[in-house]
Amino acid sequence: xxxxxxxxxxxxxxxxxxxxxxxxxxxxxxxxxxxxxxxxxxxxxxxxxxxxxxxxxxxxxxxxxxxxxxxxxxxxxxxxxxxxxxxxxxxxxxxxxxxxxxxxxxxxxxxxxxxxxxxxxxxxxxxxxxxxxxxxxxxxxxxxxxxxxxxxxxxxxxxxxxxxxxxxxxxxxxxxxxxxxxxxxxxxxxxxxxxxxxxxxxxxxxxxxxxxxxxxxxxxxxxxxxxxxxxxxxxxxxxxxxxxxxxxxxxxxxxxxxxxxxxxxxxxxxxxxxxxxxxxxxxxxxxxxxxxxx
Length: 294
Known about the structure:
alpha/beta, 31% strand
């Protein structure tokens, strides 16, 4: 058995990002942003992913950074276009021209972790049976991002559709990640505290809910709000993935309130630059002291 602090499960995405400032091409995927943030924070993460062999540079980049990566090579990587017509990071259109298939519990055979996180991009990438199987390990913290279930591929467009299996999945989770737009769609609540409370009623002990201005942590019946402090939005893609990667990593050693500070600080710094978070931890600590230690 190979043992890790956190295992991030999600397919690599070859991203085309269109914003009012121009078009860029980035190696993406939720596990990408989350794993590099986790590693930067001193954890021992691993990645489970699926991608085309021609994109093997991504696997090599993980391994070069000291992150074990266990890929399944597929006929196509997930090919995604993210279109932001304005500078509002909560509003975007998503298009997919290729998919890499479904991650199965078998891909985690012979691996152990204190936390298992799914960072999938669209429905079908992780099936509900995955969580049923992982829940057989009661000491493991299970975390999932709702984006991988609410987004459904219709033609080449990713659209939101009702998630009938939400109660089945959420009852197995310890930590749930959502953004405000997804939360309103799934819960019917514009108020993020009410949305977080709704999610929690279905089972997750902790809710991590991002919005354009910051992040809300709901844990132990309490709400903790943190604002993002960013000088630009140049690296907006991967915001939520960085947030959950940071939060679950810090939850290994800190209570929810303190882990939330780190999640807000790291995420706020990440969106200033494209690509995974790679800033010095001293800068994060200084930001936390300036804005959150009050």
